[in-house]
Amino acid sequence: MNEEKVVAGIDVSKATLDVCIAPSGEARQFQNDAGGRRGLRKMLHQANVDLVVVEATGRYHRAVHISLDDSGFRVAVVSPLQARRFAQALGQLAKTDRIDASMLARLGQAMDPEVTPPRSDTHFRLGDLARARAQLVKSRIALSNCLKEYETPETLAAFEKLVDDINREIDQLEGAIRAVIVDDPENARRDRILRSIPGIGPVTAAVLCAELPELGTLGRRQAASLLGVAPFPDDSGKRVGTRYCKGGRSVPRNTLFMAAMTASLYNAEMKQLYRHLTEKGKPHKVAVVAVMRKLIVLANVLVRDDREWAPSAPAPISA
Q1: Which residues of 262-300 are buried (b: 16+ CB within 10 A; e: fewer)?
Q2: What digits encode the pLDDT tens for the residues 270-311?
Q3: What strand order describes the sheet that includes 27-31?
Q4: What's the CA gap between 100 and 59, in Å, rounded?
Q5: Whose CA is closest to 134, among 254, 28, 243?
């Protein structure tokens, strides 16, 4: 650990920003508003902070992230799970805002996480729309399942109306997503490339544009890991365990799962992979995840090379 490196950890909530600076231990709390962010920037400048570590908190950390980035600070955004596991590894079981800020500062000193550029307004809007759509799809599934549990006409009519209302809202969100993509040249380019891949339709392409803006800049395993479909070993001594997938971004992963189901039927290369695995005795879900992995690696390469998929010249799937 480099004790000379000055790192600030910020625990973000809707109303407040709890800050702790390492190695000095200086700690303060600011309001999570324009005035509070001005005070925060002044404090960090006075402390000559080298790195700021912020825990991802949905939309609440976005304003402070942009504010600090605009002021020239290096900002790393880490997942809540990573932050909590680090605290547990240090034996810190108590959890308060001030303790969390201190743990984030120590995490920055020990691990020097990569700087995280703020999402553009376009990507933030796309992500917001994509997550809202995903939530409505979950609600539609739950309400549709309710239709199987009732027989009274009045009850069925009530649930059918709710499903119809949600379908209309989903259609409106998909229209808004499409409008955002069309208005942005970079996303329009990515969307065109992604939709050229058999199995990836407008909704999947839009979600990938929104939730995986890194596509085209990643290596093969990075792309799979970001989605949560990279297999990890589970071995110990002479025991060779079953490989497993874990983590990753849930919204694009869930969306790509459905696309992989379609691709395993209508995309010749993916269909061949699916059949090969199932004929070897692999479970259906394992085979679909393998198709997902191949799809996301293929998408990453095509976006990187700025070219559409073509059956006569399939893209290489190594990066």
Answers
A1: bbbeebebbbebbeebeeeeeeeeebbbbbbbbbbbbbb
A2: 999 999 999 999 889 889 999 999 999 999 999 999 999 887
A3: 27-31, 16-22, 7-12, 51-55, 75-78
A4: 18
A5: 254
Residue 273: which residues within 8 A CB-CB, separation 6 or more?
264, 287, 290, 291, 294
Instruction: Give 150 or 17, the one with higher predicted confidence.
Output: 17
Q: Which residues contact 279 (CB under 8 A, 6 or more apart)?
A: none
CA angle, 262 then 122 then 127, to 5°: 45
Contact indicator for 232, 217 with CB cutoff of 8 Å: no
**d(C-alpha 249, C-alpha 311), whole Å:** 29
DSSP-derived pairing of the beta strands 7-12 and 16-22: antiparallel
Instruction: Give dist(CA 158, CA 245) in Å, integer.
Output: 40
Token pair 């001005």 is found at 38
DSSP state of 2: -
Q: Which residues of 212-231 are buried (b: 16+ CB within 10 A; e: fewer)?
A: bbebbebebeebbbbbbbbb
Q: What residue has token string 């743990």?
A: 103
* This model's pTM is above 0.70: yes
Model confidence over 194-229: pLDDT tens digits? 999 998 988 899 889 888 888 898 888 888 888 888
